[in-house]
Amino acid sequence: MQNLPQNLRAAADRVRHVVPDMRSARDMINCLDLTAINRNVNPMLINHICRDADQGPLGKAASITVHSSFLSQAFNNVARRRVPIGTVINYPGGAGAISQTERETHNAVIRGASEIEIVLDYNSLKDGDKATTRALLLACKKACGKDAIMKVVIETSAFRDHDALYDAACLAMDCGADMLVTATDAPGNRSNTTLEAAATLLQAIKDNGKKTGLKIAGEIDSARNHAPYMALARHMMGDNWVKPENFRIAGRALLNEAVNIINTPPRLGHSKGI
Question: Does the pLDDT of residue 186 top 80, yes or no?
Answer without folding.
Answer: no
